[in-house]
Design goal:
Two copies of one chain form a homodimer. Chain A contains five helices and three strands; from the N terminus they run ααβααββα. By secondary structure, chain A is an alpha+beta fold. Chain A has one domain: Orthogonal Bundle (Arc Repressor Mutant, subunit A). Chain A is globular, with a radius of gyration of 21 Å. The two termini of chain A are 33 Å apart. Chains A and B meet through helix 1, strand 2, strand 3 and helix 5 of A and helix 1, strand 2, strand 3 and helix 5 of B. Chain A binds a DNA duplex through helix 4.
Chain lengths: 113, 113
DNA sequence: TAGAAATATAAGAATATTTGAATATATTTA
DNA sequence: TAAATATATTCAAATATTCTTATATTTCTA
């Protein structure tokens, strides 16, 4: 699989409200499943399922501490990605100059061959 | 809807191989649907469907040029996101110090209450 | 060593996404 | 105005995702 396709798989894995929430917390430090039950309002099996999916895609991993599983971030893209998602863009990209949206008329240099 | 949830919707919209490919091309400039038929190996109706989804989530927009629809990027996160996906991270995040994966033993300061 | 605690796994139902096929619409040109 | 071109829409089938419920596994502790 090409590198970019791996990254798309990762995007899909991350693009879920519960999983983003988990990753946000993990950027702050190691958490075990019962820690997560405190801030997620979903069932324990469902948490486990999300964790196992994230681990499957290499986003996180865990170490065992007695009967706890301590999860932590593994893929270094995660903090950067979360920061990007939180970033406040002030304005949309400008529509291509001289070509207002929905106005008819040619866009010089962009005509079809 | 909270801002971060909007962003997650956007992530989901973007996390598809065809749609990423479209966005990559749009970072280079305006493209109409028949331009896209040249580099995507899917049917025209399917291209239209992906475009309409991206537009629905505010990722792209178009202007009309005769019988062409000229699509362009609208959400300013897109170029940054694509750059992030292409970024080559040299190594995984370190596992939390003093706690190798799967090794038993407490992680000082991270014990449950 | 039995029971409790922490977590995982499995199975199934509900829902969402993706695609293909057929068809519709708008614009230009003959 | 009819035909051709560019693109969109609709619907259904296939597939994938998500969540719930029930149960299993591992480890700790009394």
């Amino acid at each position: 699989m090409r590198a970019i396709e791996k990254r798309i798989e990762l995007l899909k894995a991350v693009a879920h409200p519960v999983r983003i929430r988990i990753l946000e917390e993990l950027t702050k430090g190691v958490k075990c499943v019962s820690d997560m039950e405190e801030f997620l309002e979903i069932s324990q099996p469902n948490i486990s399922q999300h964790l196992s999916l994230l681990r499957h895609y290499g986003v996180i991993d865990y170490y065992v501490d007695g009967r706890l599983r301590c999860y932590f971030l593994k893929d270094p893209i995660v903090p950067d990605l979360i920061e990007l998602l939180r970033k406040d863009y002030l304005k949309e990209l400008p529509a291509p100059a001289c070509c207002p949206v929905t106005k008819k008329g040619r866009y010089p240099g962009e005509r079809r061959r």
